[in-house]
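Deliverable D5.2: sample structural annotation.
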Amino acid sequence: MPSFLRRGLSPLLTIYVVAFFYTLHVALPVYVNSTFLATLMSEKYVGLVYGIASVLTIFALILIPKLLKLVGDYFATLFFIVFEIAALIGIASSDSPLLITGLFIISSVLVTLISFDFDLMVEGFSKNASTGSIRGMYLTFANVAWVIAPALSAVIISGDQYWRVYLASAAFFIPALLIFSGKLEHFKDPLYRTIHFRKACLAVWNNRDLRAIFGVSFLLQFFFTLMVIYTPIYLHDRIGFGWSELGPIFSIMLAPFLLLEAPLGRLADKVLGEKELLITGFTIMAFATGAMYFFTAKIFILWAGILFMTRVGAAMVEVMTETYFFKKITAGDATIVSLNRTVRPFAGVMSPLVATILLTFISLPTLFLVLGALMLVGIPLAIALKDTK
């Protein structure tokens, strides 16, 4: 690792920079994954691959606190990063559909485990009074990558050569490996309190605030999953946008995560409580998502604006959810954090299943109307929270 990086980066800034490269490596293939898998198998089996990956991720998150207690966060994360880079190179270089599918599932699990480890490190370097600011800045570094990735991926893929995206994803993760290994080797693990997973579930259920924030998190991940799967299909196949137009639309759509999360985190620390911003965020999400049902014209600025507003609400909910949750726990609560991170893969299993059932009775545009209405459930959940201020 270059000596100027070793000297110049504080531990938190190191995590922020690593988070940028980590997210860039995740975001590059995220919008092409399902299309790529559909070239290897029938489209009806693509969802099954995602389901298997989500189930395995849940089991991995249940087990990871024991691994952290055994080897520590630094070495576990280092192993996961190396293994992830190897899996991506394997996807890019293999001609075997079976091997590629297996590596894709492994990569999906590793992506979540690495994110989980970063969460604990950020929490370990955080003070409760500044959790919102720290989480907001952490998410902002990651969101820079989310915003630039769609356009970058479109340039790299060039004629449906999907292997290029996965190779680029591996290459962009290598700087994260070098910075992480050179700067954070002295990370001091907290005392991980290993709780039986069933007891952790009961602990969350018996705590009104944690129970409500878990519900908020599930709604957010349910929203993300359905929007990632069905928005590109709707805009491309029904509205008629080409991928050259969808790339910029998605970049505009994701801009609120970059623009809003850091200032909102500071706002939650210094001025407002989290619940007011959660209520506002869910209200915006509900009306903006539901609005997708009412428009069918192929107008770039219209769809960029609607999708932008859906993510204004989602950005508010995401940063407030993260802030509130990590103010309620400590870095040693690895089991509680792992339980929280199972929400995403659980939503990854449930949301496509629910959507598949609903789409046998309703149209695709109506699905967005239903999803918007579902986001209103977040309002009473947010009202139930006791503000941390």
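Annotation notes: The chain has 17 helices and no strands. Residues 3-383 form a domain with the Growth Hormone; Chain: A; fold (CATH 1.20.1250.20).
The annotation will be released with the project's public dataset once the embargo ends.
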